[in-house]
Specification:
By secondary structure, the chain is α+β, with helices and mostly antiparallel strands. The protein contains six helices and ten strands; from the N terminus they run H-H-E-E-E-H-E-H-E-E-E-H-E-H-E-E. It is globular. This is N-acetyltransferase domain-containing protein.
Length: about 230
């Protein structure tokens, strides 16, 4: 059984994960605790935003399945927490910048998105950022642009990216929504296709200006559009 072999090979590390319940991924930064959760009004559209977009206590991504299995083999009960979708806050910035540097390329700073948090989504699991998405609402008078959608490995294939995309689309009704996606990212291309995004252009070497010269990642991109 592959899971049993994984547990055996990594028992020391996995026991630490279970005991702390916070060390979910080595790429992550533990978020500071919130003492108050209350609605707030944005300066961009003057919308009043709730402290939570969605609290999901039912979805069990692969990482949580693994932790639960490890606990059961140790005859312990894993205390599962809900997956919480929120708007971007200052407390998220450092963690997201680190994830961007690790999983995209160095030098990304998402601080500017704090100016319009109503067009953002950050996914937390027990004070760990496991996903995020950002939309720039005014690229042109008729277009908005999704700059990032990301789910941490181990938390994928659980509908998290799908909900983030759904949320971002609904924050910007009345405009076309555009984005770039790596030509090799077939799972993302399929997701966008399911939401009726259509390819407009294939751009060779689009990511050359972002990626380090030593990167082996695909440098070509599709430019997609969702027409309203």
């Amino acid at each position: 059984h592959k899971l049993a072999l994984t547990c055996k090979k990594n028992s020391a590390h996995l026991k630490q994960v279970v005991v702390t319940d916070e060390n979910v991924d080595e790429d992550c930064i533990l978020l500071e605790k919130l003492t108050i959760n209350c609605p707030f009004t944005t300066s961009y559209t003057f919308r009043t935003l709730k402290p939570f977009i969605l609290i999901d206590g039912k979805t069990v991504p692969p990482r949580l399945e693994l932790l639960s299995e490890i606990c059961s083999r140790q005859h312990r009960r894993y205390k599962r927490h809900p997956i919480v979708y929120k708007y971007l806050q200052k407390r998220h910035v450092r963690a997201i910048n680190k994830l961007c540097s690790t999983h995209f390329w160095p030098g990304i700073d998402i601080s500017e998105a704090l100016e319009f948090p109503e067009f953002s989504v950050v996914v937390e699991y027990h004070r760990i950022v496991i996903g995020f998405g950002f939309l720039v609402p005014d690229v042109t008078h008729s277009d908005a642009y999704i700059s990032f959608i990301f789910t941490l490995p181990g938390w994928r294939r659980a509908g998290i990216a799908r909900y983030m995309l759904y949320h971002l689309i609904n924050t910007c009704r009345g405009k076309d929504i555009t984005l770039h996606v790596s030509a090799s990212n077939t799972s993302a291309l399929l997701l966008y296709q399911q939401f009726a995004f259509k390819p407009e252009e294939f751009i060779q070497n689009f990511y050359d200006k972002f990626m380090p010269p030593t990167s082996t990642e695909c440098r070509h991109a599709f430019f997609l559009r969702l027409c309203k």
